[in-house]
């Protein structure tokens, strides 16, 4: 795991945007695992500008998102589908056939999750899996205690995560209590993983992760320690306790 402090939010976002852009530009059939969250907003802004500025052909790009709230209307502004359309898909003209998010209101969620996982296995591994991180070390919505061999499934959110994500909703009671998330094994089915961590709230978990030498099931991000190609990109605030 390689940690890099790139100073500002802008430069850290720029580094990640350029790495994704190069993959989209130069890999024959680019396959990306994508993430949401406040952390990614500037990165998607920069990535969209790069693609549009260079008139990049994205017709062969295919993406799978890490997670989605469960039982939230697809058109709800807080669904991750809405987030992705607004921040990235609609800006660059990615079509519905090209992007995938876990199903959020399915009648047979188990079957849909298995299908999502199977599609990833068939098309993968990802060229790059993009990740944010929760203050409790979660990746996707894999909360502390998640087995490292987990796959796409329905998960219960912790109080800590509901609290942290409440800022996007009108009332805390509106935050869904369940989500569908790729598992840790799904996330690791990737040639390269890039984690982006910005801001001082992420400093304690960054310091903890940096000093870990063995993975611990209570810190889901530490499951990445044995993956051969992981970069953790930080701004100075996220890195300041290291
Ligand atoms: C959510 C998402 C994660 C994301 C995390 C951090 O819980 N499921 O994928 O990494 O929050 O979000 P933010 O970037 O808003 O801090």
UniProtKB/TrEMBL annotation:
Keywords associated with the record: Carbohydrate metabolism, Hydrolase
An annotated GO BP: carbohydrate metabolic process
Domain named Glucosamine/galactosamine-6-phosphate isomerase: residues: 14-224
GO cellular component: cytoplasm
Record's signal peptide: none
Record-linked InterPro entries: Glc/Gal-6P_isomerase, Glucosamine6P_isomerase, NagB/RpiA_transferase-like
Gene3D superfamilies, per the entry: 3.40.50.1360
Molecular-function annotations in GO: glucosamine-6-phosphate deaminase activity; identical protein binding
Protein name (Swiss-Prot/TrEMBL): Glucosamine-6-phosphate deaminase
Organism: Macrococcus hajekii
């Amino acid at each position: 795991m390689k940690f890099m402090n790139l100073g500002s939010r802008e430069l850290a976002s720029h580094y990640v945007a350029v790495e994704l852009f190069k993959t989209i530009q130069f890999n024959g059939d680019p396959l990306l695992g994508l993430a949401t969250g406040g952390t990614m907003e500037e990165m998607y802004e920069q990535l969209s500008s790069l693609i549009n500025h260079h008139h990049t052909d994205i017709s062969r790009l295919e993406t799978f998102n890490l997670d989605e709230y469960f039982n939230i209307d697809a058109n709800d502004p807080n669904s991750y589908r809405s987030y992705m359309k607004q921040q990235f898909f609609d800006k660059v003209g990615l079509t519905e056939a090209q992007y995938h998010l876990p199903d959020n209101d399915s009648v047979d969620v188990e079957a849909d999750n298995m299908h999502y996982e199977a599609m990833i296995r068939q098309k993968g591994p990802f060229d790059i899996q993009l990740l944010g991180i929760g203050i409790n070390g979660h990746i996707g919505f894999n909360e502390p205690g998640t087995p490292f061999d987990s796959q796409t499934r329905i998960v219960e959110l912790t109080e800590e995560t509901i609290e942290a994500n409440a800022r996007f909703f009108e009332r805390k009671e509106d935050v869904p209590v369940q989500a569908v998330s790729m598992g840790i094994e799904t996330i690791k089915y990737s040639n390269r993983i890039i984690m982006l961590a910005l801001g001082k709230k992420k400093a304690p978990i960054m310091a903890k992760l940096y000093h870990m030498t063995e993975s611990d099931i209570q810190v889901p991000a530490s499951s990445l320690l044995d993956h051969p190609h992981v970069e953790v990109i930080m701004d100075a605030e996220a890195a300041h306790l290291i």
